[in-house]
Amino acid sequence: xxxxxxxxxxxxxxxxxxxxxxxxxxxxxxxxxxxxxxxxxxxxxxxxxxxxxxxxxxxxxxxxxxxxxxxxxxxxxxxxxxxxxxxxxxxxxxxxxxxxxxxxxxxxxxxxxxxxxxxxxxxxxxxxxxxxxxxxxxxxxxxxxxxxxxxxxxxxxxxxxxxxxxxxxxxxxxxxxxxxxxxxxxxxxxxxxxxxxxxxxxxxxxxxxxxxxxxxxxxxxxxxxxxxxxxxxxxxxxxxxxxxxxxxxxxxxxxxxxxxxxxxxxxxx
Length: 269
Hints:
Elements: E1 20-24, E2 27-36, E3 39-46, E4 51-57, H1 64-73, H2 99-102, E5 107-112, E6 115-122, E7 125-130, E8 135-137, E9 139-140, E10 145-148, E11 153-160, E12 164-169, E13 172-177, E14 192-196, E15 201-208, E16 211-216, E17 220-226, E18 233-236, E19 239-245, E20 251-258, E21 261-268
Antiparallel strand pairs: 1-2, 2-3, 3-4, 5-6, 5-13, 6-7, 7-8, 9-10, 10-11, 11-12, 12-13, 14-15, 14-21, 15-16, 16-17, 17-18, 18-19, 19-20, 20-21
């Protein structure tokens, strides 16, 4: 877990298997932070000093890294250096932008493999909503920079012509996507029993009230949500499911991926 990585050019980095590892002024520190819309947290360990600091906050704007450093300085003889400052545009002036420009920013942007954010224009203001989360108001800080108080982070619109082709969020560039059309009338083609020879287990897929449901003898029931950019693909609490077809264009099975497993085949019975 604490073995740090090495780049192709041979230089080492301070990130291990899910943990940040550093040694500044002779003080070894192993940490990991986490944050999203309404929380911020950190676990910061100083193994040589037998000191561990855990901070949990239900305020998205809380500086967990800085807070942990402040606590550490009360106990460590060798003082750790201050980390990078968190972005904060909350006190900056909010500007009014013409709705014709704001319309160029509306749409769906892909933040990750199954993680999307949708921007809509409502009452002259942009609203943001990540899949599976609530909708939040935003504030324009310039004609291309949007501040989301609930995320305590900014969104910068990029490659703007007739619309924005991408956004920059937390240092990453996320492209605009065009969602596939979901035909609820075709959900029946997915219904049936699916068996995995590898796991020796069966999933049963049914259509209930216009939604695909999956039943497993140990996992119980869970729903499938259509992937908005890939046909025949669905997300669920148990992983991602991609249905595949035979040479007659009939559903022949699906591949299940999730966590550290990829493409476990389930054949339709």
